[in-house]
Amino acid sequence: MKKSQVLLFCVLLIPVMALAQESNSQPATDDSQQQAKADQAKSGKSQAAPEEVVEEQSGEQVRSAQLVGSAVVNASDEEIGTIDGLLLSKQGQVEGIIVGVGGFLGIGEKHVALDWGAVEITSAEGEANYQVRTTLDRAALEKAPEFKTEEKQQAEQRRKEQLEKQKQQVGQSPEQANQ
């Protein structure tokens, strides 16, 4: 019994000794390395980060999460909708915003897309909340055509094709329709 306890103790002690040896073998940093780290902290840029990495948000940038859910207001500061999404090109450029208009708690709401160049992003000084201003009023947005996503357009096209196929089959005999 004592031999097994001693063996177990030794087995458990080996990893602890290995860790202790590793932590002692790390070289101490010199003053130049400490100075480089201090300079890096001041600039906010990492020397190891590749060019493609954006490390921090500038004052001229707005995150999509800050816009989605924000109010859309008209020239009279009347809230006429909310931003439900952004429309991006495949090159990554913002081309428009998707605005939820009408309805109550999302029921009966329709989506209208506004061109990015036709809106203005505003926020109060020091505020994290943004709003988007447009020259359109609520009535104009409610009358505007509903925004159709690519998926919705494809679904409508398939539905039209199915209806056309059914119309053609109605005029045929059952044997012809099964072919």
From TrEMBL:
Stretches with biased composition (Basic and acidic residues): 141-167
Keywords per UniProt: Signal
Annotated Low complexity bias: 30-51
Gene3D superfamilies found in the cross-reference section: PRC-barrel domain
SUPFAM superfamilies cross-referenced by the UniProt entry: PRC-barrel domain
Domain of life: Bacteria
Alphabetized InterPro entries for the sequence: PRC-brl_dom (IPR027275), PRC_barrel-like_sf (IPR011033)
Biased segments, Polar residues type: 170-179
Signal sequence, renumbered to the chain: 1-20
Pfam families according to UniProt: PRC
Protein name, entry field: PRC-barrel domain-containing protein
Species of origin: Modicisalibacter muralis
